[in-house]
Design brief:
Length: 79
C-alpha cells in the first residue's frame, strides 16, 4: 500500500482593521493568528471547530483548505 505525504503549510496571519468602531475600546489593534493549509487530497478530520468568520471565508477564496487559529480565540472584524 502506497503512503501519501501530507503537506501542511503553516504561516502567521496579521490582520489590521483601521476602523476604530470595529475594535473593542475604540482602539485599533493587530490580530495575530496561525494559518494552516491542508493537502486537499487528504480526508479532513476536524479536531477543532472550523472558523466560519467572514475573514476565513475571504481567505478561503484563495486557499480553500485554510484553517485559522486566532490568538485569544477572537476572529477579527472586516468592517
Amino acid at each position: 500500500m502506497a503512503t501519501r505525504n501530507t503537506e501542511v503549510i503553516n504561516f502567521q496571519l496579521i490582520h489590521y482593521n483601521g476602523l476604530e468602531h470595529s475594535n473593542t475600546d475604540g482602539r485599533v489593534r493587530y490580530s495575530i493568528g496561525e494559518a494552516r493549509l491542508i493537502d486537499p487530497t487528504e480526508e479532513l478530520v476536524e479536531t477543532h471547530p472550523v472558523d466560519r468568520s467572514p475573514i476565513q471565508q475571504c481567505l478561503a477564496t484563495k486557499w480553500p483548505t485554510i484553517r485559522i487559529t486566532w490568538n485569544k480565540n477572537r476572529s477579527p472584524s472586516l468592517n
